[in-house]
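anyone seen this seq b4? input:
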Amino acid sequence: YDENYEELQRNMGLNGKVLLQITLSSLSNPQWGGGRSYEENLKICYQKCTANAQCTGIQIAPTYWDHQECFLMNGNELYDRYGWKATKKSKLPTEEPTTSVAHTPAYDENYEEPQRSMGLNGKVLLQITLSSWSNPQWGGGRSFEENLKICYQKCTANAQCTGIQIAPTYWDHQECFLMDGNELYERNSWKAAKKSKLPTEEPTISEVPTQEYDENYEELQRNMGLNGKVLLQITLSSLSNPQWGGGRSYEE
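predicted toks r here
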């Protein structure tokens, strides 16, 4: 830690704009850290943030990343982010943050409250990149909050869209998915929200979920695998490319 900063918080991130990304260490290529140790690079990260008037704190990527990174941030709000660490400068300017870093709500009045560690079953209608650590342009140069607002707006304007789900914060490209489905289910580290006012008509045949088992088989066991030789591999669904599942639903 550094005396100019609050204590480093585990499993936390710092919202806002990425000002600079510094590689602390790399498992596959030590030269990515400039030949310096993790501790030396972390010290440089603190120093660069201290010297930058826009920098309000830093966040450090998970240790399981091949290239462990330190990010200089312009933002004031810590939030839950599994595997990450974050800290803010202990003495920040007293003026209000600019519009570009002001935090907008992570929900929309037309939707139920987003549920943590939940996904939304169904068909992916559209995928929107909210932010990217390795390439900010993947989010169109907009902030996470601006892109999330666009995601809500596009779902609201789409009659087929029944809700959205948001990929985990530890994804390099954090994505928002417009969904056509009505059933929330447990999905670790994801978030999901349904429209609060949905059509009352019955779903079409293609949307009706089928049972997850077959009468010729024992009940499907969760968190279990089956040892042996792989005879055939079939893609059930793909978030990034629905055609990988042949254009059929997961259940089909």
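The CA atoms of residues 7 and 129 lie 31 Å apart. The longest helix spans residues 38-51. kinda curious what u guys think
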